[in-house]
Amino acid sequence: MDQNISQMKKPPGLLDHYLEGVAAKHKNIESAMRELGMNVSLFSFVKRMFVYSVVVALIVTVALGALFLKIGLNPIFAFVLGFAFWQMFFQKFINYPLDRTKSLGNKVERDILFAARDLVVSMRSGLPLYNAMTVVSVGYGAASREFAKIISLVQLGMPMEQAIEEVSNESKSKTFKRIMLQASVSITSGADIISSLQGVLDEVVQERTIELRRYGQRLNALAMFYMLFGIILPSMGIAVAAILTSFIALFSVTTTTLIMGVVFIIGIQVIFLNIIINSRPAFAM
Questions:
Q1: Which of 61, 93, 235, 282 could form a disulfide with 106 if both were Cys (CB 3.0 to 4.6 A apart)?
Q2: 241 and 53 in contact (C-beta within 8 Å)?
Q3: pTM score > 0.85 for this model?
């Protein structure tokens, strides 16, 4: 009976081998999937994302093909662009767990400094570390959820040092790990927790101030390049092209040319917008 069942199993095809190779190259996604509570195998996740990317790429290809036929371009370019879009969407969909966990880490970074300050203030008022963490376990968004995890583990009977270490290892926030590591070391060594945490907070504030200054300098340079390549050159290029075509028959301005020019300008705008968004610091002061 078992032999008949094994004979009825379909051998893996080329697509399965390809997806297995992709899954093998993205082993780092498994830990992110576990953190997000995704109870599926890596191969099943990759296969599902492959189907999603193919569907999206087909929709884009059909839309581009119809547009190219309307403006008189060869629709074969739509298939080339569709393949490129499939590759882009496939990689983006596969990296969703990593992007999601990174986003959660950025959310913790935005609130952790305010929560840590409240933690120090609560301890200075006479509360022990456990009670101070209970205070900041609400009201500070993603940072509060990190402290709430520690409180839950302690309530289950885990020692404070072990709970801090376990939650810190799973956290994607470098600042949270840094603060909790200092708290754990202070508890183990018997040092003053308040002064230790305050020292870490002062260092974090100083580092973030320097990072904000660097961001301001990068933003000034990006604004200059944006004005040059996103506004001045496209507008002057269109004006010069219109003047030249009225005197010299180098080329003719058609509807296709104008559409391609608009697409080029929109592409430049999107590129600069993504650069500005990605270079923005994820924290708050």
A1: 282
A2: no
A3: no
